[in-house]
Amino acid sequence: MTCRAARKILYPAPERAPERPDTAKARAHVRECAACRAYFAAAEHWSALLREKAGREEAPAHLVDEVAGGIERKHARRRRPWRKIAVAAVAAAVLAAAWVGYRVPSERFFRALCEDHAHYLDAQSQVRSSDPSALEAWFRERVGFSLRVPTFESGELAGGRLCFLRQRKAALVFYRKNGKPVSLFATDARGLTLGALERAEIDGVALRRGSFQGYTVAAFEMRGVLYALVSDLRESELLQWASAAQVKSRGY
User: Fold this and answer.
1) How far apart, in whole angstroms, are the C-alpha atoms of residue 60 and residue 222?
2) Rounded Cα distance, 102 and 113, in Å
3) 57 pLDDT exceeds 70?
4) Dist. CA 75–CA 80, nearest whole Å
5) Is the pLDDT score of 132 beyond 90?
6) Above 90 in pLDDT, residue 68?
């Protein structure tokens, strides 16, 4: 088996590679190949650095593939083992820096959502309506994308307003549940990653959750639009709302 084939099968780490018909052969190759052992050692070193600096969230698959492909292309042009190790280390460092740069702005964005929620606790609406269709039409003319305004049996829809979050245009919809304000933000998902939040699952529906400044954020993406509910409700209640909103958005 060639180095390239073994690395493709076992990347990013031999011990975590899924079991396939050729996985055992790839591991055997690595045990006998000093260059491949150095390659994976360098990758593990920079993975540890990445986990320390950016948390446990894995880099997007397309970013991993792009960097791994770059490593292999450079390896094909260089034969000396120390050059291969250096290329792997530099490429992994680029991956770490790129992922930190990709994640940190998104985390700041979710913090900004909480700040905006706290600013509009009195639901200072630009359009007051309990009709989701009317709110959807009003926002469509102002944000440049179509969004779903869900309704909830246990909550009251109060209205909405246009807001700007870290130079992003967003729709802000106001709800109340048991007397407490709940904000639903919707914005173009480009340039943002839900990977800045932790994974969660409610009734089989995959979501993302986070806590900032005493508020919980429950978020998901649908058709290129990022939706995020923010409130100081119990997290389980907010996640139930986010799960219901995602299910309703699928049929929009």
Assistant:
1) 17
2) 18
3) no
4) 9
5) yes
6) no
pLDDT digit string (tens) for 202-225?
988 999 999 998 999 999 999 999
Where along the chain do its domains lie? 3-102, 120-250
**Res. 86 pLDDT band, cuts 50 70 90:** low
| SS3 call for 167 | coil
What are the C-alpha distances in Å from 211 to residues 112, 120, 153? 12, 18, 25
* Amino acid (one-letter) located at 128: R
pTM score above 0.85:
no
Which residues lie closer than 8 Å to 139 by C-beta, 6 or more apart?
147, 149, 160, 162, 171, 186
Residue 252: both structure tokens together: 């929009």
The SS3 call for residue 88 is: helix
| Rounded (5°) CA angle 38-42-43 | 115
Q: Is the peptide bond before 12 cis (omega within 30 degrees of 0)?
A: yes
What is the model's pLDDT at position 69? 64
CATH of region 120-250, choose from 3.40.50, 3.40.1000, 1.10.3210, 3.40.720:
3.40.1000
| C-alpha to C-alpha distance for 45 and 103, rounded to whole angstroms | 20
